[in-house]
Amino acid sequence: METFNRKLNTHIDSWLGPRDQRVRGWLLLDDYPPTFALTVMYLLIVWMGPKYMQHRQPYSCRGLLVLYNLGLTLLSFYMFYELVSAVWHGGYNFYCQDIHSAPEVDNKVIKVLWWYYFSKVIEFMDTFFFILRKNNHQITFLHIYHHASMLNIWWFVMNWIPCGHSYFGASINSFVHVVMYSYYGLSAIPAMRPYLWWKRYITQLQLIQFFLTVFHTTSAVIWPCGFPMRWLYFQISYMFTLIILFANFYIQTYKKRSVSRQKGSPAHGHTNGTPSMEHSAHKKLRVD
């Protein structure tokens, strides 16, 4: 296994260039196979989990959901606050920031971005809760693509561009997750559901974050500062895949449903993380 890791690391390094030595020895970052193995395990559970639960009663998980969503809300707020305060007081350039500036600022950003990377492992639980509660309709291609790809992308980010211009996407996504996970934490409490009217605006906020990230990334292409260009092009490309998928979700979930309501036909929605027997109103897919 050690020989395989060494060969794989050599191939990756020859393709992408030397790694950032500031993250050497950090949990999960030295070798790619653990991150890849976690992704494969996630995909296997996505495939086998619904089969296992097929003839079993769904689990409520209500208490766990409240604690889980509260925990991710607090973690997301911590990451957002720490990143914004670090780059603000550290004098990061909004339009383009290289990965080598004031060491104390870069080191703080790197530490927070490691937590952002690790949070992508924690967020696999989103899907596992769907499986346990038999909300299989919520396990869409968009959901799986987003969860599986983000963990792997951020392994590479942490090894090659763990600070500088990389901070923005994580910062704004952490803010969105504060809003999103607080919503889902509240939605796990039945008494709160009638007051949660802002689900559709979460998807709008997610789309806004993608466009802002494209703008921010493009600015570093137009006004370069030494941040690696190929990473910027990849970021823009990936953001466009999310824009397409999330926009399609929004149209399918909200726009077409509004048209069907106006025509007097029933809207066939989906649950918002709550069992169908607990919720007879129009239900919506969860997007993370």
Explain this structure.
- Helix content is 67%, strand content 0%.
- With 288 residues, it is an all-alpha fold.
- The protein has one domain (9-254).
- Helix 3 (62-89) packs antiparallel against helix 4.
- The radius of gyration is 20 Å and the shape is globular.
- It starts with a helix and ends in a 26-residue tail after the last helix.
- The model is unreliable at 265-284 (pLDDT under 50).
Short overview:
This protein has about 290 residues and is an all-alpha fold.
Give me the oligomer status: single chain
Determine the number of helices (DSSP H or I, runs of at least 4 residues).
9
- Shape designation: globular
Largest sheet: none
Beta strands, count:
0
What structural category arises from helix and sheet content? mainly alpha
Stretches where pLDDT falls below 50 for ≥5 residues? 265-284
Integer average pLDDT? 90
Overall radius of gyration:
20 Å
Domains, number? 1
Measure the end-to-end span: 34 Å
Which labels suit this protein?
67% helix; mainly alpha; 288 residues
How would the blueprint of this fold be written?
Elements: H1 2-16, H2 33-53, H3 62-89, H4 103-122, H5 124-132, H6 141-160, H7 167-187, H8 199-222, H9 229-262
Subcellular location: Endoplasmic reticulum membrane; Cell projection, Dendrite; Membrane
Pathway: Lipid metabolism; polyunsaturated fatty acid biosynthesis
InterPro entries: ELO_fam, ELOVL5
